[in-house]
Amino acid sequence: MLISDINLRDPYVLLHDGVYYLYGTRGASCWGPADGFDVYASRDLVHWDGPTECFHNDGSFWADRNYWAPEVHPYRGGFYMFASFKSDARRRGTAILRADGPLGPFAPWSEGPVTPPEWECLDGTFHVDGEGKPWMVFCHEWVQAGDGSVCTLPLTEDLRAAAGEPRVLFHASEATWCRRMRHSSGMEGYVTDGPFLWRLADGSLVCLWASFSQGGYTEAQARSDSGDLAGPWRQVEPLFMNDGGHGMVFRTREGKLLLTLHSPNEHLKERPVFREVVEADGILKA
């Protein structure tokens, strides 16, 4: 199939052994009950095989809805999926699953979410700092926090649990273009979605994230002035402001740097989109 045939939100691409693996949120079940994730495989980013179900809830898993934004990261001989989940008994949070290969099957690894249990959280991503220590970067959701934030917390070396308290990196309202949103409950606030860390060749560290501007869903970026998670973080030029977001970047086999995001941000019409970006002046530019 072609990429235009794939209804997927929150696309994430892993290049492993010459094959591109595409993960994301199932478009059809995004806002209701859900029970798994799929993966697609390609050697040219044009023709894709799949979907292959790489995680399935056999009834024993703790969550039954909001299966969102799976990312897969190789780490110490395994493949670790960071994904968001929710149930009546637990708030939305990021849990970690593990498999021996990128096709799965993935199995629960953490004991429930590793995000703070009293917070509504989503979109955890993985980061290893310059000293080799593992971290998760995630969003404290605006529906609880009001002004959504991007936060970080340290992980245990085996990635099974948090190893410390969360810390805020920045708030959505720090972006001057960010538009205040109204939730169906009537509350208003600023959205943060989909953080993703990228280390540039010059050592700069940027964090991609998504929110809403006058152009709709927007792929933004912030830059760490210190070059590490400690920041301070400064909002810089967004990458896409025309109804698309929750993106990440990856290098192709040929060394080209691509941004993938979903667009449009409309139920059942979401498709992964690829756009070339470059590293320049310590940030990413489309």
Short description:
The protein has 286 residues and is mainly beta. The protein has 1 helix and 23 strands.
Describe this protein's structure.
The structure is a single chain. With about 290 residues, this protein is an all-beta fold. The protein has 1 helix and 23 strands. It has one helix spanning about 140-145, and strands spanning about 10-15, 20-25, 35-40, 50-55, 65-75, 80-85, 95-100, 105-110, 120-130, 135-140, 150-155, 165-170, 180, 190, 195-200, 205-215, 215-225, 235-240, 245-250, 255-265, 270-275, 280, 285. It has a 4-stranded antiparallel β-sheet with strand order 1-2-3-4, with no helix packed on it. A 4-stranded antiparallel β-sheet has the order 5-6-7-8, with no helix packed on it. A hairpin with a 5-residue loop joins strand 9 and strand 10 (about 135-140). The two termini are about 25 Å apart.
Q: Would you count the extended β strands for me?
A: 23
Strand order, sheet with most strands: 1-2-3-4
Strand fraction equals: over 45%
Low-confidence stretches: none
**Mean of residue pLDDT values:** 97
Quaternary structure: single chain
Structural class, from secondary structure content?
A: mainly beta
Which geometry do the CA atoms define? globular
Q: Helices and strands, in N-to-C order? A: EEEEEEEEEEHEEEEEEEEEEEEE
Q: Roughly how much helix do the residues carry, as a percent range?
A: under 10%
Distance between the termini: 27 Å
Radius of gyration: 17 Å
Secondary structure tally, helices: 1
Please outline the major beta sheet: 4 strands, antiparallel
